[in-house]
Protein 1
Amino acid sequence: MKHALVITALVGVVACGGNEAASASTTGGGAPTDGTPLARFADHDAGTVPGGPGAGARYGIGGGVDRKQLAAMDLDIGADGAELPTGRGTVAQGDALYKAQCAMCHGQKGEGMEPAFPRLLGRDPAAEGFKFATDPKLPHTIGNYWSHATTLFDYIKRAMPHTAPGSLTDDQTYALTAYLLAMDDVIADDATLDAASLRAVKMPYADRYVPDDRRPGPAK
Ligand code: HEC
């Protein structure tokens, strides 16, 4: 009997806790600071939403993600390039790919079509020296602004071409990265890039960037 009472009391506590969690998440109460995970959307009671299907109903949308889908999205290549895939590409191959898949938006010489399509190339002497804080109108290009060559690969592979992101092979992405870096005088015009040689490329203004540990205050 005593045992049954304890269980009833516990159920009461859990029910209250659930309601509090639900109201906190719908009123934007912020993430718990003690490491407790936020309520999962799949468990959300749709009845608490004005105009929803009614109390106790679940939206029933979304689904699981399998490892294959995750692997296709898991492309992050950081500044040190540790995650760079095997493969290789030359400046000449990148030149042909650029003309076929990139120039229609970024221009034949990477001059862009502002404001929609950003300029990629051009080492205008006036824009050298990283003086963007004193003159925000100076054009940002890969050669005068980009911090790490490795993340250029990451960006192109993940996001370009804009109409078909993710469609480029690793070899094509190496080639395009090589072409853009060569056109901005960062590497030689006859260069071939692979994981090791891309990691070794130092961008002209890399030392203007500091790692951000996402904590308030000056970087350590
Ligand atoms: C349909 C138009 C379109 C095509 C084609 C296209 N891009 Fe882009 N690209 C964009 C737009 C728009 C942005 C800006 C995206 C943003 O800021 O969110 C961009 C941004 C970029 C950037 C980042 C520029 C920066 O400094 O912020 C790079 C690098 C780039 N594109 C490379 C390429 C390459 C390489 C190709 C060819 C494989 C390509 N793009 C094809 C539209 C296009």
Protein 2
Amino acid sequence: MKKKLCFLMIFVLLLSLFPILGLADTPTIQPVKILFNNMPIDKEKSSSIIVNGRTMVSSEFFSDNFGAEVKWEPITQTIIIQGKNVNIKLIIGKKEVVINGENRLIDVEPLLMFDKKMVPLKFVSEALGAQVKWNDETEKVEVITSNVLQKTTSEYNLLRVLAEQTAKFALKTLGNKGDFMVLTNAGYAIIDNKSTSPCLDGITSVIGCTSGNGNLLEIHTADSKPLWFFFYEKNSGNGIFIEMDGIKVARYLNGNIKLNDVKKDPSSFFKIVDKENIASDNLLANPDAWNQKIQKKVFDGYEFAIVTIANIASKGAPAGLIKSALFHDHLCPGVTSGYIIANYLKKEFPLRSPSESYYILAVPPWCKEDALQVILNTTPGKGGMAVIPMNDNNKKNLKPDAQNLAGIYFRYDSVTKKGDGVVLSFDFSKAQGLSGINMNKGFPWESRLKLDIWLLNYLEKPQFFINVIKSFELKPGEVPTDYAQPGVNPLVKLDLIK
Ligand SMILES: [Zn+2]
């Protein structure tokens, strides 16, 4: 409503303005959708209108997006746009323009709209070296700058177009309207030694999903895995899984299949196409039906990954938990327990100075470690974590109060050479008791999905599941890695076994 009123005001203003400017034609006033280097431009932020068939944008568009310097001289009503090696002077109400000292003519004169100086998008963008075109299908103006243009003849463009066509196919199948989310391993999958990252831009340009908006989710897979996409419409729960034929894509990247063939029929590049409704309510209402689909590997084995991540992401799970799930490649209660432990550490065992850091002894390790690495950046590669597996026999030997052992957490100050630690437990049986979800009942995916959803309400309540088995100080001269040396049993050192 506010927006409508705003445009009405602009319309009235322009109507009153045009007689002064001597324009006979009534301008079409409508907002224009703009894609700048494949990214949608915020409509609220950038004013854009059509005047006599030309898209006009406020001069700020060029400082915001091109990084040009924009100046305004009120006395002469002149707008000066300074780009790299380009100087453009435009005057309100005048068709004469000066580019690097040379006079040129434009067909629609710049105008004032409130305090905004509206200038022709195409003319100024092209003067700054960009390409501008109208896309009939998407009804958007596309602006591509020269540095991006240079890439478009390469495999970047081939992969981008392939993803664009795939996204269009998916939209057609799902019905064009809705609130979309895309899950993919593009960027991780490698085809013929080439990164599949350009596909991400293709998806964005067609559907508008971006990682910043949290609706373009990159799922970690091994680089040897086939490239796949899952297009999900959040309101209906409908989604379509598309896996690419890697051999065919490689032939296309090598020039053996033409770009036009992709544009004609992208589906000839698909190895698997499968449309399903994966809304959690729907799956849990009829678990047998979905279990049969899992057995058939309708999403080539990514059923659990896709179902859990798509569902918790559309339920508004926090970004850190989603990031952890993407790294882990699915969301299970194990990952959530790691996220909850990270929250616990931040609250109850926080780092107290910039020289202090965490060191995690993952004993016994489980899916939680992946969340801890994402949230706390305690990667083994940087010396933030060591992993010690425990077999059933070892677990049996734990003292009764250490039964739910969930790791040993150190903080160590590299300057003062002091450190301390906590041994934590995580009580999954309490989670099962509180939620009434029995992990041994139903299909494994079923109870895990249920608990994933239930735990979303307990992410900030670590006190429900976490207990401190033991707190301790490091002895003078001792460092956390002393507890993870070959031949050292940290459980003996900390008196945790019988
Ligand atoms: Zn897991």
